[in-house]
Amino acid sequence: MGCWAKLKSSGWAYPTAVLSIYGFFANCRVAEPFLTPYLIGPHKNISEEALTNYLFPIWTYSYLAFLFPVFLLTDFLRHKPLIMIQGLFLVTNYVLLCFAPGLPAMIFLQINYSVVTSTEVAYLSYIYSVIPVENYQRATGYLRSAMLAGYTTGASLGQVLISLAGVDYFYINAITLGIVSVAFLVSFWLPMPQRSMFFKGKKAAALGWQSQQEGPVGADRPEEPVMDKEEVGSGKEKMERNGSVGWCSRENVASAGHLLWQSFRESYSSRHLIYWSLWWALATAGYVQVFNYIQLMWDHIEPSATSSIYNGGVEAACCLVGAAAAFSVGHIKVTWNVWGELALGLFSSVGAGAVFLMAFTSSIWACYAGYVIFKSCYMLLITITTFQIASNLSMECYALTFGINTFVALSLQTIMTLTVVDEAALGLDIVSQFIIYGSYYAAISVLFLIRGTYTACINRHHPEQADAREQEASMEVIAAENF
Predict the structure, then answer these.
(1) pLDDT 10s digits, 386-417
(2) Residues 114-164: pLDDT tens digits?
(3) What is the pTM of this model?
(4) φ and ψ at residue 435, rounded to 5 degrees
(5) Helix 364-390 to helix 395-416 angle, to the nearest 10 degrees?
(6) Taking a C-beta distance cutoff of 8 angstroms, is the pair 390, 280 a contact?
(7) How far apart are CA 258 and CA 253, in angstroms?
(8) pLDDT beyond 90 at 228
């Protein structure tokens, strides 16, 4: 009991520990790598064509519709309610998978799951509203490690249960239902944040904007005054006395809109940050599209009804290899401002080659290897991109940039789904789709190879700029460890 009381009074360790536990169980989805075999198998009996060209596109459209309103609601409701909603919808997701028959139920499942994915922003941003700035780095590392550990554990456990124990897909989903139910219960233990990033009143917004001018995430800032218990109590009394009138007042909403606009201008004022954000949006759109349809490609090459499948093992391997690649970024001293865009182009070309390999091979093991290479390259590059953006912005600006980049990526993915996948348009088969995804990634690689070569040549002819950026490299290495 003494350790528990000490943990709760630590200020940052308690919310970080509870959110990490939630993240582990919420991402420990044992059945997720085997979703497609389950849906096209005897339990749901949905055709591969209906799954590819009708059912999966519904998730994309619903996700786009929910993303921006959820992003604003996350800050307005101060994160915790949205995390609880995510936990609840995860539970209903697997209730539907286990017990709801028929195509209409699976349509509702896609809409339900779009709520789960759109509320991930609440999980990723909650911790920054409840802990001091100096603990951001450690907390971020713990949270991302918890997500990775949960996903790897779930994928590995699912593979073991199917390959060694011969457990039916239904029971795999039932086990996942129990695990995500634990995550939902854990979400109730999260402390409620007392502040938000944007909806925080006129005076607080002015102070927040002043702090943005003082330095980016992870930079040295003056310490926030620590309030004693009497001040905390009086603050709570004031909050209760003001109630929701001040929180939802026209002045508060107006100041939030002003802060959003100022954050937007700061986030995209640099051409350097615009290029990194462009890669983020373009590459994420292609990555999510490949991730969504890879199980259909595996089932096309080696039907799950007649063959042993290793989807869970491959996903676990992707997490480990990708995490090792991303972790290495924090220990490599490279002037990313000079060489980063060229690295984006080079590794994007490797990813494009991996997608083409998946499209043209008839070997399931070659397709598995291509997917591991593709996902590892993306995890490496998104880590570089994330800390490049975050190390130059305040937390408010980074949160807004994250939301906008994700929204643009999802919009691009929706366009691809609408034109390439949806049966109302081209409705292409899975192999043709992957050829287009490979061509899409090849175009990204060409764009950034040209831009990266230009940037490297400019810095070679103007070495004084390279020297200035070299001095920033040590700070970037520290920033990389945040992610």
Answers:
(1) 777 776 666 666 667 777 888 899 999 999 99
(2) 999 999 888 877 877 787 777 776 787 788 888 888 999 999 999 999 999
(3) 0.80
(4) -65, -40
(5) 150
(6) no
(7) 9
(8) no
Mean pLDDT, the chain, integer: 80
CB count in 10 Å sphere of residue 306: 6
Tokens 């070299």 found at:
470
HEC states along the chain? CHHHHHHHCCCCHHHHHHHHHHHHHHHCCCCHHHHHHHHHCCCCCCCHHHHHHHHHHHHHHHHHHHHHHHHHHHHHCCCHHHHHHHHHHHHHHHHHHHHCCCHHHHHHHHHHHHHHHHCHHHHHHHHHHCCCHHHHHHHHHHHHHHHHHHHHHHHHHHHHHHHCCCCCHHHHHHHHHHHHHHHHHHHCCCCCCCCCCCCCCHHHHHHHHHHHHHCCCCCCCCCCCCCCHHHHHHHHHHHHHHHHHHHCCHHHHHHHHHHHHHHHHHHCCCHHHHHHHHHHHHHHHHHHHHHHHHHHHHHHHCCCCCCCCCHHHHHHHHHHHHHHHHHHHCCCCCCHHHHHHHHHHHHHHHHHHHHHHHHHCCCHHHHHHHHHHHHHHHHHHHHHHHHHHHCCCCHHHHHHHHHHHHHHHHHHHHHHHHHHHCCCCCCCCHHHHHHHHHHHHHHHHHHHHHHHHHHHHHHHHCHHHHHHHHHHHHHHHHHHCCC
Q: Which two tokens stand for residue 132?
A: 């001091």
Task: Assign 385 a pLDDT band (cuts: 50, 70, 90).
Answer: confident
How far is Cα 440 from Cα 432, in angstroms, rounded to an integer? 12
Lowest mean pLDDT among 19-33, 216-230, 362-376: 216-230
Segment 202-224 shows an average pLDDT of 45
Tokens found for residue 26: 């919420």
Whether the per-residue pLDDT at 227 is higher than 70: the answer is no
Rounded CA-CA distance 302/306 in Å is 8
Contact (Cβ atoms closer than 8 angstroms) between residue 179 and residue 151: no
